[in-house]
Amino acid sequence: MNAYIVGVLVPLVVTVLLRNAKNSKKRGLLADVGGEPGYAIRNHRFTSPVQTAWEGISTLAELFEHSCEQYRDKYLLGTRELISREVEVTEDGRSFEKLHLGDYEWLTYGRAFEAVCNFASGLAQLGHRKEERAAIFADTREEWFIALQGCFRRNVTVVTIYASLGEEALCHSLNETEVTTVICGCKELKKLIEISEQLDTVKRVICMDDEIPSNASYVEQSKSWTITSFGDVESLGRENPVDADLPLPADIAVIMYTSGSTGLPKGVMMTHANVLATVSAVMTIVPGLGSKDIYMAYLPMAHILELAAENVMAAVGSAIGYGSPLTLTDTSSKIKKGTKGDATVLLPTLMTAVPAILDRVRDGVLKKVNAKGGLAKKFFDVAYTRRLSAVNGSWFGAFGPEKAIWNFLVFKKVRAILGGRIRFVLSGGAPLSGDTQRFINICLGAPIGQGYGLTETSAGATFSEVDDTSVGRVGAPLPCSFIKLIDWPEGGYLTSDSPMPRGEIVVGGPNVTVGYFKNEEKTKELYKVDERGMRWYYTGDIGQFHADGCLEIIDRKIDIVKLQHGEYVSLGKVEAALLVSPYVDNIMLHANPFHSYCVALLVASQHTVEDWASKQGIPFTDFADLCEKAETKKELLASIQKEAKRAQLQKFEIPIKIKVLSEPWTPESGLVTAAFKIKREIIRKAFSEELSELYAS
Fold first, then answer.
1. Contact (Cβ atoms closer than 8 angstroms) between residue 482 and residue 41
2. Same-domain status, 260 and 392
3. What does the pLDDT read at residue 262?
4. Largest CB tally within 10 Å, which of 133, 161, 405, 422?
5. Mean pLDDT for the stretch of residues 524-547
6. What is the maximal distance between C-alpha atoms in the chain?
7. d(CA 549, CA 692)
């Protein structure tokens, strides 16, 4: 009996006590703040917001130079060698580009600093003055980072533009900011040439690729543009060095254009001090950041999440290896069959992800498991159930040895998809479902730090700590921020609500940006400075604080629609619940104030739906044909209604009719942002006939 107590019960009691201690840990504390009355929380370790983690460093330019001096001979920037491009033609005649990529080729911190200094000097030699703005319009890559830091060394404000941005938004961004120099890739240069007649101020284009389109000479003559390769700019600067003209903390580092989910994008002005505050805060949250880490960079650097993450990595001596969502894994769509994806070659330890990417990883794993079927599927299900029980606090699989066994026998293969060495994943950009968070956490064996922030807060607001095993929350305030909830009576959210205070989320701190470029009206509406000089941003998101000081996002003011009989429907909340269905690749709920019910546009998951149809013996010519069949609509509607009931949605929140769509929504199609958030108004216009039919039928 004594041996049993010592060997089994004691570890169990210790495990339960430790888990309860973690769950009861105060992660955020009440704060005394100024401004509009509300319920304010600060980080439990810092009484006032952090501005910099490095003594004597107050700008991103200073921070980068400091890192390059400290880590001079360590690897910083890595890019894969392109061995070949091939075109693969499918049976139905469609062609796809496939890449054969080799090993990573690296620049050390010392060499990267030389490249940055050379680019900065070359930019000045081309005639770009510091009071002029430069735009970076390209996919995430090594040259993007070098160009950014090069501009910082000349105190040039960088306008960041998504590579997937449409013509109208692209023209708007470049003309509004009066950009004179655009730094882009060959693909983006082709877009610029097409809209050259609509661009008012562009004088110079620096192409990151050696290949320059043949029709570039047309704009060089007709618009008097100077088009130069990135390499030539570096060479020009190397031969004609120019002294640095470093910025001050209050200087505008970046005008970052939002992805335009609610219309034309707005340019958010962020200072060096703003971004440095977020970088400094994240330093205190992610455990053990340092020169042994390798970071997988593949999200758009025009998104503040990726831009901040790469600056964090460079600050601590980590290596940054570049890839793309289409080449990330061995089975990614642009990887030549039989060759390796980015993660397999890089073996990263850290990565950031948006929920849409993590959802795809989960769906990809489940697809493989279900395809194998039989004993392999049962074995996976048992392993997953045991690990889930352990994470949720039951005694099944709670002990280290069993965890190690399941990881070795089952989850090792899953981890290999992303290289097998991931130790921490940061998820941001949108709410991550609890199911996906648990799945990725168990299968990768690494904690997922779910964060909340906006472009307007330099990505900083809240972040979940590494020992917080809860799901559905976004953590406590980052050390750079105060988070305050204020009453929103119209929506029924009050800080006096029980059991948790609820309200609109307001973020205050040195990370809160200056405002919107050339949009004083919107800036005054959403930004406020209190009597103590603290700057606050009114997010429009609705949150609630848990007892331990962690925030949960529960709604969004802009997404709430009032139905015919007075019920309020939160579109985003319902969509998050319905996305859990395995049949759903994407979904947009639509509520019309003149009707008493909701409908939905549902983008079907091709593999799952085709697999279901095959098992049911339903004949179809192609996927579009299958999506039109009555049996398919019935099955998919039943599936999302089941998930709606499981999420305890009200009857009026659950769509009663759906339109099943076969074509995915991608950033290239303009229907979702680069972070895969749906562009509600654009989708509504694009599918206005389908929505009208749903209400009419």
1. yes
2. no
3. 55
4. 161
5. 96
6. 91
7. 44
Which pLDDT score, from 0 to 100, does residue 547 have?
A: 96
Angle at 257 between CA 256 and CA 263, to 5 degrees: 160
Q: Which of these ranges, 269-283, 365-379, 635-649, has the smallest mean pLDDT?
A: 365-379
Asked, for residue 325, whether it belongs to a domain, the answer is: no
- What Cα–Cα distance (Å) separates residue 614 from each residue in 514, 585, 632, 661? 56, 19, 12, 19
CATH classification at residue 514: 2.30.38.10
Q: Verify that 497 and 575 share a domain, yes or no.
A: no
Instruction: Say which range, 17-21, 452-456, 625-629, has the weakest mean pLDDT.
Output: 17-21
What residues contact residue 127 under an 8 Å CB cut-off, 6+ apart?
A: 203, 204
Q: Structure tokens of 443? A: 């299968």
Range of the domain at 256: 60-81+100-318
Same domain as 138, residue 108: yes
Residues 6+ positions from 517 with CB-CB distance below 8 Å: 176, 177, 255, 266, 267, 268, 269
Say which residues have a Cβ less than 8 Å from residue 278's Cβ, sequence separation at least 6.
308, 453, 457, 458, 459, 460, 478, 480, 511
Give pTM, 2 decimals: 0.84
Q: State the total domains in the chain.
A: 3
| 359 and 400 assigned to the same domain | yes
Q: What is the CATH number of the domain that holds 670?
A: 3.30.300.30
Distance (Å, whole) CA 255 – CA 278: 16
pLDDT of 510: 98
- SS3 per-residue string spanning 84-151: EEEEEECCCCCEEEEEEEEEEEEEEHHHHHHHHHHHHHHHHHCCCCCCCCEEEECCCCHHHHHHHHHH
Taken as a whole, the chain contains a residue count of 697
Structure tokens at 537: 């941003």
DSSP of 367-401? HHHHHH-HHHHHHHHHHHHHHHHHHHT-STT-SHH
Output the average pLDDT for the chain. Answer: 89
Per residue in 632-685, pLDDT (tens digit) is 999 999 999 999 999 888 898 999 999 999 999 988 788 888 777 888 888 999
Cα dihedral sign, 234-236-242-248: negative
Residue of 677, 651, 649 whose CA lies nearest to 587: 677
Q: Nearest 5°: phi and psi at 603?
A: -85, 115
Cα–Cα separations (whole angstroms), residue 436 to 77, 133, 365, 451, 523: 31, 41, 12, 15, 36
The Cα 582–Cα 681 span in angstroms is 25
Residue 430 sits in the same domain as residue 468: yes
pLDDT at 203 over 90: yes
Partners of residue 561 on adjacent β-strands: 569
User: Within 347-494, where are the H helices?
Assistant: 355-372, 374-392, 400-406, 412-415, 434-444
Domain match, 246 and 178 both:
yes
